[in-house]
Amino acid sequence: MLDDVFPVPTRALIRQGGRACFYRLVNTSPLLIQVQSGTKIVMADDKALRLEAGAYGLLPDYRPLAMENIPKTPQKYQNLALPVPRPLFDEAYIRMGSIAVPTRPVPAGTSDLPEEAAALFDYCCQPGNLTKLPGAIAKARLIELITWFALGGAVLGQCQSPRLEDRLRQMIESDTAFDWTLGHAARSFNMSEATLRRKLAAESTGFSEILSDTRMNRALGIIQTTTLPMAQVALEVGYDSPSQFAARFKERFGVNPRHVRSGSERFERIGAEVERSGADALAR
Q1: Integer Cα distance of 45 and 22 in angstroms
Q2: Is the pTM of this model over 0.90?
Q3: What is residue 175's DSSP assignment?
Q4: What pLDDT does residue 206 have?
Q5: What is the mean pLDDT of residues 136-154?
Q6: Which of 22, 92, 104, 114 has its CA 20 to 30 A from that of 277?
Q7: What is the pLDDT of residues 172-226, one digit of tens each?
């Protein structure tokens, strides 16, 4: 543990064989990333951030984003992602003093990181490196890394007031295979089912929508970061039937889950119809 509050971050190596654009992806933690092969395009507020191989960037938490990953033949698309607890960003910026923090969290790229900063990113992403350090030292390394990104222009925007949807999404993500119900969620938040339903409606969403979306976001992450069979991926996100899972995944993302790994289908701009829907707008 970094301390009694923050767990040690574990990096994810994301690989994708087929080109696809995924809408309304939500990270539950800010991500420091490096594109290693191919191209990544991230959109928020109708603004596009393009990251080519070798580039570094910062993706905000709890912000619906559109992401397009483009492999460069013959290689697959690949990037490293390191989730870092948001409070460490706040602490880093306070220490910097004069840093200008954007009012809204948006994706940001860095100018070229110095060799020392790139080496620190690699160090923090290597499995086991942070866990073997005393918590205070691991925390200091991450704050230094955040500082390097900020000096390169990638600054995390101010934390927005947490929505009930965000809290519910985080709860479901802790165990996506669990048979979550509205009753479970209501009891966890110490409110009645009717009150929870009303509060979610005020945020233009509902329990079933959040449950399904959280599971599909998690499934996409598992497909991109592991070689688990699709039947096992389905079980990991609460589906006993692989065919039902595949159908739901394609309904959500517009592409078969196997395409994400193999690139076996013709690319289309997935989700264009969804993007035009007010309920599914990229900016919340």
Answers
A1: 15
A2: no
A3: T
A4: 96
A5: 96
A6: 104
A7: 999 999 999 999 999 999 999 999 999 999 999 999 999 999 999 999 999 999 9
Q: Give every CB contact of residue 232 below 8 A, 6+ residues apart in sequence.
A: none
Residue entry with tokens 């990104």:
149
Nearest 5°: phi and psi at 39? -135, 140
DSSP states along 253-273 = HSS-HHHHHH--S----TTHH
Strands (DSSP E) contained in the chain are 12-16, 20-25, 31-37, 39-44, 47-52, 56-59, 65-70, 77-83, 108-109
**Residue 103: its pLDDT value, please?**
86
The pLDDT of residue 177 = 95
The H or E element containing residue 41 is strand 39-44
Q: Both tokens of residue 209?
A: 């929508």
141 Cβ contact partners less than 8 Å away, ≥ 6 residues apart = 120, 123, 124, 130, 133
17 Cα distance to chain centroid = 19
CA–CA–CA angle 183, 189, 190 (5° rounding) = 85
**pLDDT reported for residue 163:** 87
Q: Which two tokens stand for residue 152?
A: 């390169």
* Distances, alpha carbon 40 to alpha carbons 134, 188, 227, in Å: 35, 37, 21
Residue 31: closest CA among 188, 184, 142, 178: 142
